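User: Sequence for Dienelactone hydrolase below. Tokens please.
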Amino acid sequence: MCDDDIHPGLVHDPRVSRRAFGLMTAAVGGLAATAAHADDKVVETDVVIKTPDGQADAALFKPAGKGKWPAVLIWPDVMSLRPVFRDMGRRLAAAGYVVLVPNLYYRVKKAPVIDGTFNFANPEDRAKITPLRTTVTPEGTDRDALAYVAFLDAQKETDKGRKIGVQGYCMGGPLSFRTAAAAPGRIAAVASFHGGGLVTADPTSPHLLIPKTHAEFLIEVADNDDKKEPDVKDKLKAAFAEAKRPAKVEVFAGAAHGWTVKGSQVYDETAAEQAWTNLLDLYKRTLR
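Assistant: Structure tokens for Dienelactone hydrolase:
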């Protein structure tokens, strides 16, 4: 799953521009931030988070007005932080959450890492992503996850008496598993949408981390991912059962890899909205 041959061809978002995403930095105690967007429901801020490996650029979303809310970390897909994931962060914040969306590849490049249209069927386009993906390692993800959880907990709007949720798309699915294992005392909910590599033969396979977590899981599987690796869902269910972790693992019939992300060639609004409803149900039940 999440291999180049399973990805849809074209991914397009005409709003993507490096100018729109440029970070105007102003030092605030090790944090660089500027207000990038605000409306009557959500305040969006570009932030830079200090991690053990460098300075991670990210987008932070908070409900407008006074109050405290549970926090959520969103791991984006292989194309990393871009407008569609900012939209997701904004939508989730409007539902009552403090939301962080980091750039997966901050070690080598600031977001957006891809400008305009990207075609997975084009070898030259794929070659732009390949070296970036190698910078995302299991060990580095664990370090990042702890830094991001600490950053969310440091926000005055975060209700630290409530647990944190984490969700991931494509390669972000495994990163969500790792986050739950790295910070088991804080992560109560994990959601993976068309996640790739959740079960592998490697000793670092995400599914092997399930016993280390204290979270409830929502695993939404793409139909073509399931057809390619039909045993993955069964191995996940078995791993959850053995670890006694509550989990929902379901295949979305007819929905292809990437179906939840707008701009994807296979985006399916009906199925994506159902997945979003399932996500909000998970958070309402667990982030307390």
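The chain has a mean pLDDT of 89.
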